[in-house]
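User: I'm putting together a small comparison set for a docking exercise, and I want a reference complex before I start. The sequence is below, and the ligand is fe (iii) ion. Could you produce the 3D structure with the ligand included, as structure tokens?
Assistant: Of course. I'll restate your input first, then give the structure tokens for the complex.
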Amino acid sequence: MTSRQLQRVIESIPASDGAGVKLRRSLGAHQNLRLDPFLMLDEFSSDNADDYIAGFPAHPHRGFETATYLIDGHMLHQDHLGNRGDLKSGGVQWMTAGRGIVHSEMPQQEEGRMRGFQLWINLPAREKMKPAGYRDLQPDEIPAAALAGGGRAKVIAGTLVHDGRSTPGPIQGVTTEPLYLDVELPAGAAFAHPVPAGHNAFVYPFEGSVTIGGRQLRAQGAGVLGAGDQVEVLAGSEGARFLLLAGRPLGEPVVQYGPFVMNTREEIEQAIRDYQSGELTRAA
Ligand code: FE
């Protein structure tokens, strides 16, 4: 197997979204900082309610999927389809915006730590206008496997392969075949995982640091990996916790305007008109 090297780092930068939620954005901080099929990765982490209390009031999306992984905290998702999801520590919501969804994500806590991630995953052209969908995954639906070399891995999407075993995550059957792992390693432990050669992959440490192919990757930077068919990560002296994300690139043009991600400018203009007219959320 060929191990993927650390090719470049997309450092996260402070940003604000929703009604003023403070976060760090790596992928998607600029429109050319994407890794097909991943459009954006936001990390939010704060013990100060002022940084998150305003939440994400009702807003639209079209043309892609969002995966919200809450590590600490409590948020409520509601959307125009009538879905209501109580997102608690360790839970995930996987939302397929498709042709259109209007949703809100509001904190259900007034103090304490709020920490987690929102990832945007692109949809292929032929699926951008499919009906919207929503899955609310409770913490006990996210498998956590103990690793032989120490530590543990949680599987949100795709299948964890470790120590001669396979542990499938709850999200399967997505066209871009995303792998979404949350891996925690003690100091100095190694973690290796296969990733198909044609897929794009990156590692995002959010506690401690890791080394990949002899190069250090510090927390809060997205380490984009080069060619190969496996990922090998070594935890630093304080241990590490990181996301490993991989997926099959679409190789299609991306035109984004805020919460709408389509293939052409005309489709974006249509999305804006559809939102204004109410067509975006009309039943298909
Ligand atoms: Fe949203």
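The chain has one domain: 6-247. Residues 56, 59, 61, 66, 103 surround fe (iii) ion (CB under 6 Å).
User: Thanks, that's exactly what I needed.
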